[in-house]
């Protein structure tokens, strides 16, 4: 069996995977090659993929159970997927740095995004490597952060007056808000497969650091929100029709560039659930740190 070709896009994050057809069911060896590329590069890209929503869902489900978003509309043929359809009458609110669905106790391990319809230009997505961002901090600051937990809040990412809430309707938003109370996650997360540490805060959902006064928390979080945007940690992907991005949600953040309105951009996303985040110094019972 020929191996896939994996071409890094930067030394820090991102790679293009060639020699694979995701409309076909991968065997276990191929699946492990894809997983290895994901772990090595944090976000991997596949071009010229012609997959149905059911094939998209089934590929994602090979990596774990899928999360159904409480607000976004689902794809009729595969309701586990959801649709991001942005245009002049439905502008995006994804133009902020975020890690997907960290407002639940077991945030996604990965997301898989498929380009269905693109604007003539623009609409790129940028990813940032949280391991690299963490390692660029001073050792003293890293040690301080590793003992902290932060509150992740659905209401911060999806406020009642926001675009997504308005599109979903007041009743659906209220139900989602009641079902997703704030949760605590470590500020520094140990990756369950690589054993490496990375920042696990994001502007989209991280509201405050537990145990600190609000001004103290805001000062630290705002510094980190700015820090993760350094070009050294980033890869920017220019979308093509039928391209797919597959990212490790445990060690990345991303930003959807909002520069294409009034043109339309339609994407389908599958979201693979993960495990409860932990730091190596405070592991849950029975969990072993993976070898780095």
TrEMBL record:
One of its GO terms (biological process) is sulfur compound metabolic process. InterPro entries: AtsK-like (IPR051323), TauD-like_sf (IPR042098), TauD/TfdA-like (IPR003819). Its cofactor is Fe(2+). One of its GO terms (cellular component) is cytoplasm. It comes from the Bacteria. Keywords: Dioxygenase, Iron, Metal-binding, Oxidoreductase. It holds the Pfam family TauD. Its EC number is 1.14.11.17. The keyword Metal-binding applies. Residues 5-271 form the TauD/TfdA-like domain. GO terms for molecular function: metal ion binding; taurine dioxygenase activity. Belongs to the TfdA dioxygenase family. This is Taurine dioxygenase. It comes from Phenylobacterium glaciei.
